[in-house]
Amino acid sequence: MEKFDVVVIGTGPAGEGAAMMLAKNHRSVAVVERYLEVGGGCTHWGTIPSKALRHAVKTLGDVRRNPLLGKLAADLHVTLPQLLSQAGGVIEAQVQMRRRFYERNRVPVLAGSALFLDDHTLEVIQQAGEPLRVRAEHFVIATGSRPYHPPGLDFSHPRVLDSDSVLRYTDTPFNITIYGAGVIGCEYASIFLNLGLKVTLVNTQERLLSFMDEEIAEALSYHLRDQGCIIRHNEQFERLEARESDVVLHLKSGRSIKSDVLLWANGRTGNTDGMNLEATGLAPNQRGQLAVNGHYQTTVPHIYAAGDVIGPPALASAAYQQGGAVGRHILDATAPARRPDLIPSGIYTIPEISSVGRTEKELQEAGIPYEIGHTHFKSLARAQMTAQPVGMLKILFHAKTLEVLGVHCFGDNASEIVHIGQTVMASRDLNSLRYFIDTTFNYPTMAEGYRIAAYNGLNRLA
User: What is the rounded CA–CA span in Å between residue 209 and residue 219?
Assistant: First the structure.
């Protein structure tokens, strides 16, 4: 039986973050991976393939809208499978790079499924050969999540898809119904609209992306509708009628929606089943997720969990940082917890949404005096040149101290633009709205939107 300081279960962003942090600090580490390659769901059937698809669709749309190239591309017919195939090269490049990380840092990858025998012993069930037993002082559960499948919905039907199987779909539908208007649902609605499909987006809540800044979420809602998306709010699933040539979604309101395909995008389940967690004393919730404290320790202190398996924010970027935080705490139990308010969110609709910090609603509820600075992308020279005028940058700042409290962005490259605000917010010395006024930004750039928004905000002060 081999012994390690730490065994990490899962090689997605959280598992990789923990393993690399520990290996580079001279701890003996092994990782367990049940898939045939490293990288986890993020690399193989989640973030990378879906964002590669988005990029391909956006590029096609940009070409068609370009006044110089649009005529050449007007008759260009591209199928969904052709666009999906573009992800293959990216996935392979990511796998090779991540495989080298483990090799260079001398971290063995144990191929198989993890089964706990007790809270310090793990059995790795291999596809071929005898099970391998390992012991460790610490474990990190970074097994990710998968699409939630409600009872009674037949996902084996070729017209019933989830966010994994849609990436293997072999046809191009004429219209599609998406049930669930969270991050995944909105991203796919945007992708399919830009492919020219008719899209109905069914939302179980009152508005899109209720956790986001309301003004930004409303901008997305308007933009989706402007592209032809039908959005149904406050609807609940009752049953699905899956037929040979179409599907009919029946809702509790009495509404029925017919389409070629249903994409179920409502919730995810943590990958904790089949691990015999009972042997450790751990009990996941009904969605398979594990509860953790600020240092990502479960109720069994030497067993940590990070990434999608602990629930929101369920972002690849956050998962990697969580894994790194686990590694730091194992190395030094006095290490301070990371600030969760500085984790940016990125929603890869077309255009993108990204934010960091607090929303207006949160500031109002906390009774914090704040003001707003705006920049509309249509006024920026760079956005005019690139024909990407849709969008806005919004800075929330303290009305008395000028401390930057939140940055919210909707538009092309929003997930890049937001990092300027994130950096300022993370700095004790620089965190002031005046930083954006005193700093010289290249011109023309999208980044200069911060200067314009800062002046806009100062002009609002009494």
Answer: 11
The string of pLDDT tens digits covering residues 167-199 is 989 888 999 999 999 999 999 999 999 999 999
Say what percent of the chain tops pLDDT 90. Answer: 85
1 confidence band (pLDDT: 50, 70, 90): confident
Q: Looking at residue 13, which CATH number applies to its domain?
A: 3.50.50.60
Tokens matching residue 133: 């037993």
Shared-domain flag, residues 137 and 279: yes
Question: In this model, does residue 2 exceed pLDDT 80?
Answer: yes
The CA-to-CA distance between both ends of the chain, in Å, stands at 70
Q: Are residues 240 and 289 in the same domain?
A: no
Question: How far lies 118's CA from each of 34, 356, 460, in Å?
Answer: 20, 40, 61
In this prediction, residue 72 carries a pLDDT of 65
- Residue 60 domain-assigned (yes or no): no
What's the CATH code of the domain at 393?
Answer: 3.30.390.30
Q: Do residues 23 and 103 both lie within one domain?
A: yes
Question: Does the structure show a pLDDT above 80 at 77?
Answer: no
pLDDT at 82: 85
Range of the domain at 168: 160-266
Q: Nearest to residue 343, comparing CAs of 351, 326, 352, 355? A: 355
Asked if residue 73 belongs to a domain, the reply is: no
- Clarify whether residues 33 and 124 are in a common domain: yes
Residue 152 lies in a domain: no
In angstroms, rounded to a whole number, what is the distance separating the alpha carbons of residues 459 and 373?
A: 9
The residue to which tokens 């006095």 are assigned: 334
* Res 307: pLDDT: 97
Is residue 140 within 8 A of residue 326, CB to CB? The reply is yes
Q: Alpha carbon of 228 to those of 18, 217, 261, 435: distances in Å? A: 44, 17, 17, 40
The reply to whether 154 falls in a domain is no
